[in-house]
């Protein structure tokens, strides 16, 4: 179905009798977005429409996902996306700058709680901005219905600590990425500039807002009709969606299920697509990226020299290792980063001596030392053919199970040197 070609039903039959058709309503909201917004994927349209609807049902859910429109360059449609949401959400508060105190006072008023639309958020959390830890903490706490912040009230010795609710819907637009803790609570839409063949209708505040307000009122009416059935519901998650991504998507999938039509199927496809894309674009942990790249480089080898690892890391085209803080990754940097992780025996991962000849050795890493970190932090690899019970209990089998193909180690001598404390790599 081409939603962009279908007219808005609300303009044809504004006084239609009977209950609102949830699926048709969401179709109309999608049509409205498509008139003014160019999103990067079908999944993005689905997610944004469901987010619009969920803002009218906040108290039916345990959490509210943050919606983040991010792009590498300005002029990518982030502000326009927020402007359209501004016409659809209840009590919208569109801003480009807000202090922790102002945001706290706004969202702690549960009777007049706004939908916060925070544009140019990169100026608050970007690399050139101050830490803004109070604001970050407030945004994170407001993700859950149980979220509160503590404030002292009263005068002098009569002050008492009082919790204030900060649960509120929040959408953001900005350049680059956001702090890890906010990203993990967000549906992330990676915006891009419109291509010459991608046309949108000009935004005119007077007429566009009137259009959006008709849909906003319909969303509010429909929300009232399904609120009881959605309260504390637990929608079925797609395979592989759990933990924090499940928290983020539960309200949106619940809205889709209540709307019916093809929205439940579209919502789950969008969930998988956007969660997978978020993981693929995750730049939050350089350490996890390092572990994943090392796992690919080892590819079944039992040990590798540091010099070889550094060369292969620097040769990866789509990786930061050739330009890490302005220079190629060094053995010292590699050792420092891996030292933050531990082996299965809970010892820090360190370079060890590896024989390179009868009387020579060099520093390197053993796959058995990295295996536990790979299992804990890296996405699973395709399963291998089942090995014998005896072999499966060995450290080598644990390492090999991570890889679809086991290559012959490329070191000269397969016998490790006696276990001796390894010096820090130079």
TrEMBL record:
Positions with biased composition (Polar residues): 1-11
InterPro entries: DUF3631
DUF3631 domain boundaries: 190-377
Any single Pfam family the record assigns to this protein: DUF3631
Bias type Low complexity, positions: 414-426
Name of the protein this chain belongs to: DUF3631 domain-containing protein
Location of region: Disordered: 1-22, 403-426
């Amino acid at each position: 179905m081409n939603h962009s070609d279908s007219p808005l039903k609300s303009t044809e039959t504004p006084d239609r009798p009977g209950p609102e058709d949830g699926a048709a309503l969401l179709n109309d909201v999608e049509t409205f977005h498509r008139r003014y917004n160019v999103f990067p994927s079908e999944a993005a349209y689905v997610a944004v429409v469901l987010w619009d609807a969920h803002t009218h049902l906040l108290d039916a859910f345990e959490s509210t996902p943050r919606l983040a429109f991010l792009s590498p360059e300005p002029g990518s449609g982030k502000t326009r996306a927020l402007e359209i949401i501004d016409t659809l959400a209840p009590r919208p508060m569109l801003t480009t700058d807000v202090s922790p105190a102002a945001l706290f006072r706004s969202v702690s008023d549960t009777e007049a709680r706004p939908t916060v639309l925070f544009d140019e958020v990169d100026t608050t959390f970007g690399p050139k901005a101050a830490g803004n830890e109070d604001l970050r903490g407030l945004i994170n706490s407001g993700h859950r219905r149980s979220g509160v912040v503590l404030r002292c009230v009263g005068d002098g010795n009569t002050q008492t600590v009082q919790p204030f609710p900060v649960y509120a819907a929040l959408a953001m637009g900005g350049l680059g990425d956001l702090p890890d803790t906010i990203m993990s609570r967000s549906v992330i839409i990676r915006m891009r500039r419109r291509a010459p063949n991608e046309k949108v209708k000009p935004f005119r505040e007077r007429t566009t807002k009137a259009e959006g307000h008709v849909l906003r009122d319909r969303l509010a009416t429909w929300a009232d009709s399904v609120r009881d059935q959605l309260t504390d519901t637990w929608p079925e998650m797609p395979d592989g969606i759990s933990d924090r991504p499940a928290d983020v998507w539960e309200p949106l999938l619940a809205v889709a299920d209540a709307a019916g039509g093809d929205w439940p199927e579209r919502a789950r496809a969008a969930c998988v697509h956007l969660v997978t894309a978020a993981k693929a674009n995750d730049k939050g942990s350089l350490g996890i990226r390092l572990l994943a790249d090392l796992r690919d480089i080892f590819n079944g080898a039992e040990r590798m020299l540091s010099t070889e690892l550094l060369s292969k890391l620097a040769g990866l085209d789509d990786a930061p290792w050739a330009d890490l803080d302005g220079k190629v990754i060094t053995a010292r940097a590699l050792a420092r980063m891996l030292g933050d992780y531990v082996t299965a025996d809970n010892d820090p991962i360190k370079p060890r001596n590896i024989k390179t000849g009868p009387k020579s050795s060099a520093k390197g890493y053993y796959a058995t030392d990295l295996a536990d970190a790979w299992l804990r932090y890296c996405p699973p690899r395709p399963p291998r053919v089942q090995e014998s019970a005896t072999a499966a209990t060995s450290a080598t089998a644990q390492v090999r199970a991570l890889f679809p193909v086991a290559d012959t180690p490329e070191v000269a001598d397969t016998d490790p040197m006696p276990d001796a404390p390894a010096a820090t790599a130079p």
